[in-house]
């Protein structure tokens, strides 16, 4: 039970947070109208676990990422960006498939993604990866690697390794039907994952895709019924609800200025994990997650320059 | 036997040239160095058979294209471009996979492509497509659809339909190992196709990928041995060699000014087919193919504005 006023204890491990999964290119249209012939797309570093690993380094936390990219210029670019924050590509596999991409239109609301998945789900279990998981305090993944083999089997194996070695596991249930093979029941599989991990942070959209439309508190209940130990349901400007099944706390948004929502959820995870690792309570860590997210929302881009966790804590009085 | 001084006769059919296969997005880096964070890529209409269908309309020939695109903004954009030259998307299937893309760096020599194949090879045999093939004078395809199921079976079926109904078939043996599934012998499959069609136009690079390095005349011989009825081997600035097995003719390049080589091969096919359909001899049609190609080489882009075939014929004195 993760009591809100308690601190979560971790084993002494070399890696604070190991994220596994999608390291990819976001290609974002330069203009809102991308119907014209000469539309330009700008290339950005992307992938939710990759963003989290980057943010954590900026917050002074020893993060690592395990991912697969193509043996191409895009893969080289992503690795260079990781190295720029001190992450060596020891756990990055270079595979013969092309580096995955997500093409996005520029949008004032939610952009409609076009997925080009190729290298990202080729990550397989290796003894090196298993060793890295054993050497971590927290393991994090999203719906991307579990949507396709062979990455799905790799995640299943790593969850078992994590359970055997008292590693905390966070899971982003960012289910999207476009990620899943047509003949596979993604909703059922994602639901089956919820009880196997420690932390889940669905957005209200994620919850609706998994359970249909319902009141936020009911959605939280559904995650708890699936065996979730700590659920944090985020609702954009309407704040968030967190519950461990016996305590439920609501959070107001800390965002005062919204330039770009891209990466806001990744910023939450980053602040939350950074705070947990630094020995703050569960409740304080959730608040710090929202503070880092509010800071990120003021700037454009999925990964922005972040000051120290202490500075952000002071800025948002959490 | 396609004698060089003879005219090829066609049945009276509604469609002059039906191209089948890749209709996709070319994403081309704005700068030669695409290592930087803020690299932009420009989006262009692309896919070799799509370029040929576009060119043919500009040359006043009734072309059609059968292809599969995604139900996404990129697919909509491609369809709009086809409609701009009068091609209605009757034979364009909108599938649940993403519209295929090729990402290219800007290069003064040959750019290195990164392939994102998804919708393009989902094209299947339908009675509507079969009817369109039966209603055509010429059928054209490249290595893209034959590299992957289900499009491969569709092409095999359409070649049979073409044979039964006296439709001439052109095949671009643009073999590239990146197009083929790793466990499939693409070279052997492409070779098996050569004898089933009427016209093949390998570049010297294509020939080298299929047969290894050799003298141009030897490469032509190898295509003839595989059963090719008319081989046109192009060698860039070194011109071309064409052979029907008993007659062999060499062609000098007509290009005087080279701004961009993208789409030069597609321009050849367009001029060649346009000329054949207009009742010119085989040799004159090959010359007109090189004239249209030379005209295209003066401008940037795969599909450029083309004057009438007669104007180009006059410009290059062929």
Automatic annotation (TrEMBL), chains A, B:
Superkingdom of this protein's organism: Bacteria
Keyword Kinase annotated: yes
Carbohydrate kinase PfkB domain: residues covered: 16-307
Keywords: ATP-binding, Kinase, Nucleotide-binding, Transferase
GO MF annotations, alphabetized: kinase activity
SUPFAM superfamilies hit by this protein: Ribokinase-like
A Pfam family the protein falls into: PfkB
EC number: 2.7.1.-
Family: Belongs to the carbohydrate kinase PfkB family.
PANTHER family for the chain: HEXOKINASE FAMILY MEMBER (PTHR43085), PSEUDOURIDINE KINASE-RELATED (PTHR43085:SF1)
Name assigned to this protein: Carbohydrate kinase family protein
Annotated organism of origin: Marinicrinis lubricantis
């Amino acid at each position: 039970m993760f009591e809100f006023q308690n601190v979560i204890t971790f084993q002494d491990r070399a890696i604070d947070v190991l994220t596994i999964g999608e390291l990819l290119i976001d290609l974002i249209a330069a203009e809102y109208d991308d119907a014209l012939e000469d539309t330009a797309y700008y290339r950005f570093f992307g992938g939710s676990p990759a963003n989290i690993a980057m943010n954590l380094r900026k917050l002074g936390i020893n993060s690592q990422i395990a991912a697969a990219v193509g043996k191409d210029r895009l893969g080289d670019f992503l690795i260079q960006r990781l190295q720029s924050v001190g992450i060596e590509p020891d756990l990055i596999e270079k595979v013969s498939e092309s580096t995955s991409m997500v093409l996005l239109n520029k949008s004032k609301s939610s952009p409609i993604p076009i997925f080009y998945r190729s290298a990202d789900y080729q990550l397989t279990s290796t003894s090196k990866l298993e060793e890295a998981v054993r050497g971590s305090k927290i393991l994090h993944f999203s719906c991307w690697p579990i949507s396709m083999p062979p990455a799905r089997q790799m995640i299943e194996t790593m969850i078992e390794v994590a359970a055997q070695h008292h590693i905390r596991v966070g899971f982003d249930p960012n289910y999207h039907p476009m990620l899943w093979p047509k003949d596979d029941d993604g909703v059922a599989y994602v639901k089956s994952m919820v009880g196997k991990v420690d932390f889940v942070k669905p957005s209200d959209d994620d919850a609706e895709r998994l359970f249909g439309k319902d009141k936020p508190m009911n959605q939280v209940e559904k995650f708890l019924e699936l065996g979730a130990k700590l659920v944090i349901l985020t609702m954009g400007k309407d704040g968030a609800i967190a519950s461990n099944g016996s305590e439920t706390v609501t959070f107001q948004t800390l965002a005062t200025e919204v330039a770009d929502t891209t990466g806001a959820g990744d910023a939450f995870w980053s602040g939350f994990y950074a705070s947990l690792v630094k020995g703050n309570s569960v409740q304080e860590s959730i608040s710090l997650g929202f503070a880092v997210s509010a800071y990120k929302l003021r700037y454009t881009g999925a990964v922005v320059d972040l000051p120290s966790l202490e500075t952000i804590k002071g800025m948002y009085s959490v």
